[in-house]
Amino acid sequence: MAEATPRQGSLLPRPPRAAPLKRMHVDDAGSFPDGSKAAAFLCARCGTRSDWQRIATVSEGKRGIPCPVCNKPLQSAVAWAEGGHRGA
After folding, report:
1. Which three-class secondary structure string do you get for 41-68?
2. Given pLDDT bands bounded at 50, 70 and 90, which one contains residue 17?
3. Element (H or E) spanning 28, and its range?
4. Among 58, 60, 40, which Cα is nearest to 49's?
5. How far is residue 66's CA from residue 12's CA, in Å, rounded to a whole number?
C-alpha cells in the first residue's frame, strides 16, 4: 500500500500573526451640519475618548478605530522590528 504524502500546507510553517489591535468603539454617533456621518469613540480598556470624527460608513464606526494609548507599545515594537532600534 502506498504511503499518503503530506499536504503541502503542512510542509511550510505558517508566518507569525500580527498582534490584534485594541480598538475604540462608538460612544456617540450623529452627523455634522453638512450631513456627513460622525462618531465619537471610547476605549473600554483605558477610557480614552476621541473627538468627533467623520466616518464614511456605519460599518467603519462599528468596526472601531485603533486606540492610540493601548496600541502605543505595539507601535513601538513594530518600529523596533522595522529597524528603528538601529537609529534609522
Report:
1. EECCCCCCECCCEECCCHHHHHHCEECC
2. confident
3. strand 23-31
4. 40
5. 32
> Which amino acid belongs to residue 69?
V
Question: Is-contact 25 42, C-beta < 8 A?
Answer: yes
Cell of 26: 462608538
The three-class DSSP label of residue 37 is strand
pLDDT at 83 over 50: yes
Residue 33, SS3 per DSSP = coil
* Cβ 67 vs Cβ 24: under 8 Å: yes
**Grid cell listed for 52:** 468627533
User: pTM to 2 decimals?
Assistant: 0.65
The residue assigned the cell 529597524 is: 83
Residue with cell 456621518: 37
